[in-house]
Amino acid sequence: MMQMLQAGGLEVMTDHDRAADHDNPEGYFEWEEIKRIKENPEILAEVGGRAVKVVSALIPALPPMHRYRVIFMTRPITEVVTSQKKMIERRRTRGANIVPDKLTEALIQHRDTILRGLDALPNFEVLEIDYPQLVAAPMPWIEKVNEFLGGRLDIEKMATCVKPALHRNRAIAAA
Hints:
- It is globular, with a radius of gyration of 17 Å.
- The protein is mainly alpha-helical.
- The protein has a two-stranded parallel ribbon with strand order 1-2.
- The chain has one domain.
- It is built from 6 helices and 2 strands.
């Protein structure tokens, strides 16, 4: 999404510290400083209207005095768990020591809690994007994003960022 926003003409806040790799060959578009939002809410002054990638766990730490437009990317939790497991194995790092079913359950609960919380806050506008649907048919979703952000984005350039081949850990649809 961050790549799409940038291609569409929106400035993005990124420090380029995390280089592209096997798990994310197009790059991460992250701003490490946002991870300290709880301890240092004043860092938002540095953003200056740019788009910032914020992991869902940090959304409750965003200062209430600002207005936010959140593009919330949803993905089947089984895909998230599979993707994380493969990344942890490939990097030989330690992940959450939780059985997959419990991890799936916890992630579903977290997502639902965050979305309910956002829905209740008057200073947040939320557009929920279904990642697999975006990859399968980008233009309707890109048009929604463009409308949500004021209608000034280059939707054709945004569409060039959608690369179905990078959606590697797909959930298997039930028959």
